[in-house]
Amino acid sequence: MSIHYDYIVDTLKQNFPDYKETKPVFLDFGCGAGHIVEKGLNEGLNFYGADPYPKNRSDHYKETADKKNILDGHILQIENDTLPFPDNHFDAVCTNMVFEHIPDITKPMEEINRVLKPGGLFLALFPTADTLWEGHVNLYFAHWFKPKSKLMHSYLKTMKKLGFGKKHDGLSPEEWASHYQKYLHEYTFYRPMRDINSIWQEHFKKKPESLAYDHMVYRFSKSKRFSKIIPFGKNPVGRLLFETACHMRGARVLKVQKESA
What we know:
The protein is of the alpha/beta class. The protein is built from ten helices and nine strands. The radius of gyration is 19 Å and the shape is globular.
C-alpha cells in the first residue's frame, strides 16, 4: 500500500487518540478502489468512502472495491456532485491525490464543509502547480508545458526514448507521448498555492495549515536508510528543506479545522 494511505490513517488516529471510545466517523473523499477505507476499517476506524466513479475513467476502481465487498455499505457513489451523507456527519474528511483531477473544486469544498461536523478536521494531499514531479507520467516538469503544445509532446516523447516515464507496455514513444499528453490535458488541473489558500479561506474562513514537515518525518521514519536524517530536520534550515522536498517532489499536505458551532 502507498505510504500516503498509512500516513492519512495514522494522522487521523493521532488527531483522535480516543477513537476506540468515542467512535469518530471518517470519510475518504474520492476514495477510488477504497484502499484507505479498507485500511481504516482494518485498524478499527469507522471509515466510509465516496467517489463519483466517472465512466471510462475509474470503472476499474469501482470493480476493485466491489470485489473486496467494501462498496457494501461503506463506499457510496457521488451523484450530481453531492455527497450521499447528511449535514454535520463526519468528524474528519480526507482526500488523497484527488483535487488535481477536478476542474473546479468549489462544489467539492462546499460538500466537504457541509458533511463535516463543527470542529471537524479536513486533511488533503495533492500536488499544486509548483510541484516538480508529475506522478501520473513519472517525469519531472511534464505538467509545466502548455497541455496541447508541440513542446510538451516532444518532451514526453524524448524522455520516453531515453527510458524515462511511466511504463506502458506495447506503446511506442510516439504513442506513449500522445496518450499521456491527452491524459494530462483532460484529467489534471494544477493550481497555484495562492488559489488554494483563497479557496480554503472562502470555505473554512482560514488558510490551511501545512503538514509537509510532519509528512516527511513520517516518510523518513519508515525507512532505515532515511530515518538517520530526521534529526537534521529539527533545525530551521533542515525543516525548510524537508518542507520544500515535500512540495517539490510529492504534494501539498494540508489540514484545516471547521469552525465550531
